[in-house]
Amino acid sequence: MPPLRMRRAAVGSLPMVSTGLLAADGIVMRFGRRTALRGVSFSAEPGEIVAVIGPNGAGKTTLLSILAGLQTPTEGRVSHGVREVGWVPQQAAVYRKLSVAENLRLFARLERVDDVDATVMRMLAQTGLADRAGDELGALSGGNQQRVNIAIGLLAGPPVLLLDEPSSSLDPRQREVLWAFVSGLARESATTVVFTTHNVGEAERYADRVLVLADGELLFGGTPAELQAAVAGDGADRDFESAFVRFLHERGH
Amino acid sequence: MGPLRFLLVKDLQILRRSPLLLVLLALYAIVIGLPVGYAVSRPPTKPKVAFFNEVPASGNSFSLGGKTLDASKYADRLFDAIDPIRVDSRQAALGKVKDGEAVAALIVPKGVTQALQAAVSLSGSSEKPTLEVYYAADNPLKRNYVEDTINAQVAKANQALGRELTKVAAQYIGVLLKGGGFSLLGQRFDVLGLQRSTAILAEVERTLPARGAKRAEVERVRRFAQLAVDNLDLSDAVLSTISNPIAVDVNTVDGQTSSLDGYAVAAAVTIALMFVGLLVAAGMLALEREEHAFGRLVRGLVGRTALVAEKILLGAIVAAVIAVLLVLLLALFQPVDFGRAPEWLPALVVGALGFGAMGVAIGALTRDVRASSLLAFLLSLPVAALALVPSGSISKTAYDAVQAVGALFPFKPTLQALDAGLNGAGPALGTSLLHLTILIVGYGLLARLGLRRFGART
Ligand SMILES: Nc1ncnc2c1ncn2[C@@H]1O[C@H](COP(=O)(O)OP(=O)(O)O)[C@@H](O)[C@H]1O
Ligand SMILES: [Mg+2]
Predict the structure, then answer these.
(1) Helix residue ranges per DSSP H, chain A
(2) ipTM greater than cut 0.90
């Protein structure tokens, strides 16, 4: 697609190769006459945790699925190959009739990891599900299913992990566990994490940087504190959530 | 091959963990397959039969007891139960059977009137008047039905002719008994009659000397005449046993036909293949979507084409296993030629792949297992029904349309391949297998396209 290449050359500022660095450039996504994304560009550093927040229908899932290589954007491009990105869909993509270990083993084989058994053992330990290894997924709680879902996304040890609404089906305690786990990943293995959420507090607490998406448009990219500061004058004492709502309101959303 | 194998094993594992579902599926396929196989389409009434009368209109009559009868009147009796397509050559009649417009051809050969004349003039002719019937070889169920119909109608015509014969013979005998006039070959004869002869003989006897040799002889003649008078009264009953003046000569157009039971096995196995192949392939592909695994798989782990191939294979494996079980079960009740396994086994396997491919196309169009099963189920009944419509039961155009539509689904070619493999009947095995191969590729492509369209969202 020569026009896209020219576009990219024109932007020219995004280094496209470097492990753990994720970049999206001028992503436009149209479904028929409806435009879900209107030229979204951003990048993330190794070990950085980025939250994508925005109202329902803003295009968060669409953006993530493009980053994951699940959909091809109408325009624009992403830096990574499909295999370098771990993908954790919103709904647990697991086989409920198979056991935890069988799910992990199947996807480890499909990912062509070097030592399937060792990888499965490692993931079981990491997710704390070693004692449930033989249980059918369908018999597990939503939280535990989500753990397996995430574990599958991590099987190939990808430098980038994408999570779509990872906490939406979890109770508060399970959320704690999840975020501790994700923070550990970023810290210890410099994994770049991009997640979507409509729990704004979570974004403030766990993300190094937030991207605000509304109606397919990227309205803001910066730290949570910068977002709060960006809200006009009197907002210094506001909490992050009302600052976010105010921000959207000021931008006409 | 690697990812395909892993997925196949995974799916078989999932199926194995749903034993109730599997058992129900197998039972269902067998429970539906058996009775439908054996009872498929008692064909509708009044089958179309091509009719050619070789006897010229002028030569249609024969005389019986001085009356001139029209042979075509007896042929017409056949048409109470069949719908005749009148044609003007033997070739055309056979052609109608070959192209499926008529279920059978009925031919009245040239010599039939003379033979009939000979039969009814009680001249002791050896040759029975014979009708020729030709059946299509493609469907023994249908053939069975038409054969019954024609035989029943010929029996009726025979009965009517027999009654006519009896009446005429009785008239002759009445004249012999009571005397009177009758005409033969345009001449009128006046006959004395046995009863009057006896009376005359009694008169003569009385005029002769009581102990003379002449009187004794006349008495013997009178006694004989009296005996004849007494016994010819029974002749009506004797004459009515004259039966079946018309015979039917049965032939088959286009190669061999399998026995009804052999065909039923093929039909039952095809129905089982269809249910299991469609439901498993469609359901298990839809399950990838329902479990949201589809998006994960097509992200570089498994190609969409490999996924389609895997599900076709999966549906085919399960369907073929259940179908083989059904064949073994059927073999308990009737002969199945296991020596022919090198022929029917490939037919069974390729047929299973055909249904697997169609199932995958269904599965690609649906998002969850329930919808896919429902769609597979809804499609399977009309698909089977289409393939089992007997030729000649509907108009030629409608039949051609049904054939054309039926050719788009794997049912008919599978049935034909199995019939060829199991019974050595119908069109060549290779033709049906080729047909199935084309359908497998076609449905595979359709499924692949369906996944491209709907595959983006997981
Ligand atoms: N495959 C699709 N076909 C048509 N419209 C879609 C498709 N995927 C997403 N959309 C539309 O794009 C918009 C963004 O959707 P999505 O990314 O799911 O939003 P979010 O995750 O932020 O709630 C919505 O209006 C949605 O209806
Ligand atoms: Mg979403």
Answers:
(1) 2-11, 60-67, 100-110, 116-126, 142-154, 172-189, 200-206, 224-230, 240-250
(2) no
